[in-house]
Specification:
Blueprint: E1 10-11, E2 37-44, E3 47-52, E4 57-61, E5 66-67, H1 87-108, H2 114-121, E6 128-131, E7 134-139, E8 144-148, E9 153-158
Antiparallel strand pairs: 1-2, 1-5, 2-3, 3-4, 6-7, 7-8, 8-9
Helix pairs in contact: 1-2
């Protein structure tokens, strides 16, 4: 049964994901199924609290969630969280693809056997989605997906494990009287 007004913002990655009762690795709960639609409702550092269609919620590594395709961030929506020149990452992606293609050519023409092909391509990770002026690139060095609008990059999702604890917020508010706390 779907909760009224449920609109997924993300889906669980294809391999599923661990979940916790609180943003604390010591309090695990039932893992989430692959491709489960969820709604991200709160963030605390790397942690994200998600709401499932049936109303159940859990804490997950919010960086690993896959965003449901929506309009990409734009310049008029305010500054992106992290800006960088996309050209170096595009050049690395181009070199990785060129190297992979050369290995495929050698394999196809009999210049490589399967074992050598495997050895040459082991560890190569590449991801590129181009849609008009928008591009999503996988940055293997930083283990993250980034979005670029042609001029700057913004982290979109990451492969890194969550930090052990959520980043602390401010201390709880304390009422102070003239006589002390």
């Amino acid at each position: 049964m779907t909760s009224p007004g449920f609109r997924p913002t993300h889906v669980v990655p294809g391999h599923g994901m661990s979940a916790w009762e609180a943003p604390d690795p010591a309090r695990p709960t039932v893992p989430l199924d692959a491709f489960l639609p969820v709604q991200l409702v709160e963030r605390r550092g790397d942690w994200g609290r998600v709401l499932c269609a049936n109303g159940w919620s859990a804490w997950v590594d919010g960086r690993r969630l896959v965003a449901v395709p929506q309009d990409p961030p734009t310049a008029d929506a305010g500054p992106l969280a992290r800006t960088a020149d996309p050209r170096p990452l595009l050049a690395r992606a181009e070199r990785a693809l060129s190297g992979y293609r050369a290995s495929v050519e050698h394999l196809a023409t009999g210049g490589l056997d399967g074992e050598t092909f495997h050895a040459r391509t082991q560890g190569v990770r590449l991801g590129v989605v181009v849609d008009g002026e928008s591009v999503w690139l996988y940055d293997a060095e930083q283990e993250r997906w980034v979005y670029a609008d042609g001029a700057r990059l913004s982290t979109y999702a990451t492969d890194a494990e969550p930090r052990a604890k959520a980043e602390p917020g401010h201390a709880p508010t304390q009422v102070v009287t003239p006589d002390g706390p």
